[in-house]
Task: inverse folding
């Protein structure tokens, strides 16, 4: 049981480049989330999805896009990377919003934009 | 005002100390309360989970919820260097599908 798998683990991007952060879960969770974590700033929600074909914005969606074509996968797309997007990105999943069992997090993607 | 406020730390204690980590919240609809532990360069992992008020104990860890004061705590007894991590509180409303709201985390270092 792999849980939540994120790829890549590390990436350096140049300003203006684009990339997709991959996230896959094998627990048949219906909810999935993308967070960014900056030093001392906690977790900030970027986008979330309550099921295949349904996505919604979180606190800090600007500069990002998501899609959810299957239950398992929830990729995060960065267009025109900026230094402000340097952060650690975590994908998470849960049953029905996480109130009963919490979230399962991936191990993160460390992104540096130079 | 943030919905969840967490003591920012950082906190540094000697091995064997009792550690108290705390969060306050403003949303009286929160019913589910959790603590996550995050080791350096890792994703958060669920440590403790409680529903409504009361205490829950799991080994050296005790989670306490006081809904009347809108205050939750995590106590670590006989702290170990392996407890060194960032601890995040999280909470959720009763409504099905309600997302977790996280505190900003407290970094704990337990010195041998």
Result:
């Amino acid at each position: 049981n792999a849980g939540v798998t994120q790829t890549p683990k590390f990436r350096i991007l140049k300003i203006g480049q684009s990339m997709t952060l991959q996230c896959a879960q094998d627990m048949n969770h219906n909810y999935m989330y993308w967070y960014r974590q900056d030093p001392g700033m906690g977790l900030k929600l970027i986008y979330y999805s309550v099921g295949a074909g349904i996505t919604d914005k979180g606190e800090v969606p600007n500069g990002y896009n998501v899609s959810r074509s299957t239950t398992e996968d929830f990729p995060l797309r960065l267009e025109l990377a900026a230094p402000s997007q340097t952060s650690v990105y975590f994908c998470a999943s849960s049953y029905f919003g996480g109130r009963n069992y919490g979230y399962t997090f991936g191990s993160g993607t460390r992104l540096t934009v130079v | 005002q943030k919905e969840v406020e967490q003591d920012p730390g950082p906190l540094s204690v000697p091995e064997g100390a009792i550690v108290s980590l705390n969060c306050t919240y403003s949303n009286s609809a929160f019913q589910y309360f959790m603590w996550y532990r995050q080791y350096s360069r890792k994703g958060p992992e669920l440590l403790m989970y409680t529903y409504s008020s009361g205490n829950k104990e799991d080994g050296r860890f005790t989670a306490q919820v006081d809904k009347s004061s809108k205050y939750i705590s995590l106590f670590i007894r006989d702290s170990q260097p392996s407890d060194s991590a960032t601890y995040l509180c999280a909470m959720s409303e009763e409504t099905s599908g309600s997302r977790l709201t996280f505190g900003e985390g407290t970094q704990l270092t337990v010195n041998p």
User: Anything to note?
Assistant: The mean pLDDT of chain A is 93.
